[in-house]
């Protein structure tokens, strides 16, 4: 029915766990060969640069999630603070990386399984993995969270074991021969341009901290969201930096690897032997599966918000199953898209992901300025200037700097995707004769929501109040930023 809402079942650490699961901490070893080659052997420096950029952007996300405590992330923030049409284009761009991330995870898992069982057709693994991820996400968000927590703990324990084995190997003269070295952070020939290029690659690893905002309407206490965002960035970034530092100290040159595209199995073998290699690969599998679960669920919620706002067909994309309390149609759709992992190449898919992510990051920073400076007029004190102008400007500039350093394939593919979105918006608005905002509410649905929620009986609100809060789900899409984001969903929950 129109008033069915998402279930509030996630605590602070459950949300952080979902973010870390999305980020996949072991990816630092999967991409180590590529990034080391790009940066001339300073992988941890690239992660440090990316971490600084993500912290600025994370602060902006924390500000905006307080104002709009609803799912939708950059799409909602841009839509409410700047313009609905611009919000749609930002959401459409972000949709590219959100849709492709589940497919990338399934693709990686397919590669793992076909390498172990080459006689089994690849489609068998893809179909099985997609079926399991789709079923878990469809059943309940709490089930997804619990399984994700187990997998994340497992991979963190394995990374800790890698650090122990790595320290022992360094003490025996492997690589740089000592952990007390600055070589992983600076080597002769290190250039700013190459470090920035490496940072654009590793920022892919951080995609996940922003995805936790998709769970705002399922958080037990939405006030924990800013803390969850920063904790996800700092814990994930710390793991990436320490893991990258140790790996770079152990392997100053990538010439020792036979496969630089994904040296994780070789790293495990060289550092800890055959048994550790098997366990390490198992941990990578667990990490990737955790990311598959988290990315699958978050993109389903972005589609849900866009459907609830009417910019995607509402009856399908804005549907929440009345018993399961999950966006069932979207979850199944993401599973269907992920089936393309049977034939797609990892290089092709992964090259497009950062385009949408960096667009979203940039506009979240700009949304802070638009809302607090231009709407709320918060620029009269030094604290406000720093908080609402200086920090988001730096964040936008840094994400923009990474964006312009993307590979050409990613830029071309992203522009094509954006052009498709623009054409769709022109069609949707009948050549801009109809506002994007006009799709927010339908009178019939509002009346149904009022009747089923008992607005007149329990709250004394009229149709205008229901329209302001949304069609029973709380979109954060009304005309009063800061109030609407949670009104419908919170009312339904209470």
From TrEMBL:
<dbReference type="GO" id="GO:0016020">
    <property type="term" value="C:membrane"/>
</dbReference>
<feature type="transmembrane region" description="Helical">
    <location>
        <begin position="12"/>
        <end position="35"/>
    </location>
</feature>
<feature type="region of interest" description="Disordered">
    <location>
        <begin position="461"/>
        <end position="494"/>
    </location>
</feature>
<feature type="transmembrane region" description="Helical">
    <location>
        <begin position="275"/>
        <end position="306"/>
    </location>
</feature>
<feature type="compositionally biased region" description="Gly residues">
    <location>
        <begin position="469"/>
        <end position="479"/>
    </location>
</feature>
<feature type="domain" description="Amino acid permease/ SLC12A">
    <location>
        <begin position="19"/>
        <end position="387"/>
    </location>
</feature>
<protein>
    <submittedName>
        <fullName>Amino acid permease</fullName>
    </submittedName>
</protein>
<keyword id="KW-1133">Transmembrane helix</keyword>
<keyword id="KW-0472">Membrane</keyword>
<feature type="transmembrane region" description="Helical">
    <location>
        <begin position="327"/>
        <end position="346"/>
    </location>
</feature>
<keyword id="KW-0812">Transmembrane</keyword>
<dbReference type="Pfam" id="PF00324">
    <property type="entry name" value="AA_permease"/>
</dbReference>
<feature type="transmembrane region" description="Helical">
    <location>
        <begin position="410"/>
        <end position="428"/>
    </location>
</feature>
<feature type="transmembrane region" description="Helical">
    <location>
        <begin position="192"/>
        <end position="216"/>
    </location>
</feature>
<feature type="transmembrane region" description="Helical">
    <location>
        <begin position="385"/>
        <end position="404"/>
    </location>
</feature>
<feature type="transmembrane region" description="Helical">
    <location>
        <begin position="352"/>
        <end position="373"/>
    </location>
</feature>
<dbReference type="InterPro" id="IPR004841">
    <property type="entry name" value="AA-permease/SLC12A_dom"/>
</dbReference>
<dbReference type="GO" id="GO:0055085">
    <property type="term" value="P:transmembrane transport"/>
</dbReference>
<feature type="transmembrane region" description="Helical">
    <location>
        <begin position="85"/>
        <end position="108"/>
    </location>
</feature>
<feature type="transmembrane region" description="Helical">
    <location>
        <begin position="151"/>
        <end position="172"/>
    </location>
</feature>
<feature type="transmembrane region" description="Helical">
    <location>
        <begin position="120"/>
        <end position="139"/>
    </location>
</feature>
<dbReference type="InterPro" id="IPR050367">
    <property type="entry name" value="APC_superfamily"/>
</dbReference>
<feature type="transmembrane region" description="Helical">
    <location>
        <begin position="41"/>
        <end position="64"/>
    </location>
</feature>
<feature type="transmembrane region" description="Helical">
    <location>
        <begin position="228"/>
        <end position="247"/>
    </location>
</feature>
